[in-house]
From TrEMBL:
<feature type="binding site">
    <location>
        <position position="135"/>
    </location>
    <ligand>
        <name>ATP</name>
    </ligand>
</feature>
<keyword id="KW-0963">Cytoplasm</keyword>
<comment type="pathway">
    <text>Metabolic intermediate biosynthesis; chorismate biosynthesis; chorismate from D-erythrose 4-phosphate and phosphoenolpyruvate: step 5/7.</text>
</comment>
<dbReference type="InterPro" id="IPR000623">
    <property type="entry name" value="Shikimate_kinase/TSH1"/>
</dbReference>
<dbReference type="GO" id="GO:0009423">
    <property type="term" value="P:chorismate biosynthetic process"/>
</dbReference>
<keyword id="KW-0460">Magnesium</keyword>
<feature type="binding site">
    <location>
        <begin position="29"/>
        <end position="34"/>
    </location>
    <ligand>
        <name>ATP</name>
    </ligand>
</feature>
<dbReference type="InterPro" id="IPR031322">
    <property type="entry name" value="Shikimate/glucono_kinase"/>
</dbReference>
<dbReference type="Pfam" id="PF01202">
    <property type="entry name" value="SKI"/>
</dbReference>
<feature type="binding site">
    <location>
        <position position="51"/>
    </location>
    <ligand>
        <name>substrate</name>
    </ligand>
</feature>
<dbReference type="GO" id="GO:0005524">
    <property type="term" value="F:ATP binding"/>
</dbReference>
<comment type="function">
    <text>Catalyzes the specific phosphorylation of the 3-hydroxyl group of shikimic acid using ATP as a cosubstrate.</text>
</comment>
<feature type="binding site">
    <location>
        <position position="154"/>
    </location>
    <ligand>
        <name>substrate</name>
    </ligand>
</feature>
<keyword id="KW-0479">Metal-binding</keyword>
<dbReference type="InterPro" id="IPR023000">
    <property type="entry name" value="Shikimate_kinase_CS"/>
</dbReference>
<keyword id="KW-0028">Amino-acid biosynthesis</keyword>
<dbReference type="GO" id="GO:0009073">
    <property type="term" value="P:aromatic amino acid family biosynthetic process"/>
</dbReference>
Amino acid sequence: MIEGPGLLQELKAKIPRLRRPLVLVGLMGAGKTSVGKRLAHLLGVGFVDSDAEIERAAGMTIPEIFAKLGEPAFRDGERRVIARLLTEQPGVLATGGGAFIEPRTRTEIAAHGTSVWIRADLELLWDRVRDRPGRPLLRAPDPKTVLGDLLERRYPIYAEADVVVDSRPGVSQEWMARDIVRAVREWDAGRPGSPATFEECVG
């Protein structure tokens, strides 16, 4: 990706103040946590990973929850945790890969926040997750095929997000964070009269 001087100057403009939570959605490996932390730092707000909050509330890791309670119980707990987080001080919330697939969770996110899909292709996702443990859904003889199946099923639903930003190899977290701010600003500008995500800086 070419980071041209014109776009860089635009992205380095004054950073607005966040008024509604920014909710990052997408498949495992998309960069929701790493980019989310950088985005929160850029905006001067808090960052929360919903998976980490679920583990803290349950006193178990995500793989343990899946093994002991099953995926339906995990999804129900995930929904309740995300609903709570959306009502707290506006910040950046990174969600698990399956969170946005749950209709009630999508409804909560739409009511209280702005959703941002970090989109990435299969090869990039696989390169990022193949050597990392702790992915219950990839515990299969052919995990790349499982990941591809998840992509096929989930991407049409992720496309319902308010904003879409593409993740590409070699693009820094800083650049991604600023690209999200730019994209959300454009989305806000196209929705006059609707609740704005950002309060723009003046002067």
